[in-house]
Amino acid sequence: METNQKEMDALRRELCIMTGWSYDSQPEIREIPIPSQEEVDSIDLEADKALALELNYTQNANEQRLKHTSKGAQYDVMDKKVKTGHQQIAADVEAKYKLLTQARSDYILAEGEYQLAVNNQQSAQLRYSIGAISQNEYLKSRESFAGTLSARDVAALKFSQAMENYRWTVNGLAQTEGE
User: Fold this and answer.
1) Which of 26, 83, 140, 146 gives 20 to 30 Å between its CA and that of 131?
2) CA distance 161 to 135
3) What's residue 3's pLDDT?
4) Which uninterrupted H or E stretch holds 20?
5) Contacts of 162 (CB under 8 A, 6+ apart)
6) How far is residue 160's CA from residue 173's CA, in Å, rounded to a whole number?
7) Which residues are CB-neighbours of 142 under 8 A, at least 6 positions away?
8) How far is CA 154 from CA 32, 59, 96, in A?
9) What is the pLDDT of residue 2?
10) How far apart are CA 12 and CA 15, in angstroms?
11) Inter-CA distances, 67 with 55, 70, 86, 126, 175, Å
């Protein structure tokens, strides 16, 4: 128990430093929020593509360069870069949306498997308490439950990360070139 506390303290200090806090700060560290199904369902992909194009930093800079480039070879290169940027931004937003919906599906599946594992674990505990299964079978049941719990948590984190990736893509960080 003491070892776990020391490890948690070391991890907290490391997290504080990585995020710009002093090592001895005491910020509130909470669980990563899982996006809601409604949040994903409310996404308007076409509106987000337009917003991503409007907010994209690289694309805006390329368009400004194009305005101030005189006709010639350099202008043609910048013109092509701007046109390609339009296509790339739309494709990147769409790709991130597909990854988001896949992560949501994976999370829903993992959550369903977790709920089933909870029921199975409760059943195994009851059967063990009345002597219907051996201790070894009960321990296998607990191990299976722990694996399912872990899989659900990983799926939740991937879903949350996919949502953040999508948000950042829409809010100006979509790829404009083969970066």
Assistant:
1) 146
2) 39
3) 80
4) none
5) 96, 99, 100, 102, 103, 104
6) 18
7) 121, 124
8) 11, 34, 19
9) 77
10) 5
11) 18, 8, 16, 74, 21
The pLDDT of residue 120: 95
- Walking along the chain (179 residues) 10 residues at a time, the average pLDDT comes out as 84 90 87 92 96 94 90 91 94 97 98 97 95 95 96 97 97 80
Using CA atoms, how far apart are residues 170 and 35, in angstroms rounded to an integer? 16
Nearest CA-CA partner of 169 in 49, 74, 85? 49
DSSP state, 133?
S
- Dihedral Cα 52, 58, 64, 65, nearest 10 deg: -150
Give 116's DSSP letter: H
Please give the pLDDT value at position 96: 98
Q: Can you tell me which residue has the tokens 């509130």? A: 28
- DSSP H helical segments within the chain, as ranges? 2-18, 37-41, 45-55, 57-67, 73-129, 135-168
User: Position of tokens 């191990």?
Assistant: 143
d(CA 91, CA 179): 13
- Cβ-based neighbours of 32, under 8 Å, separated by 6 or more: 156, 157, 160
- How far is the C-alpha of 59 from the C-alpha of 70, rounded, in Å? 18
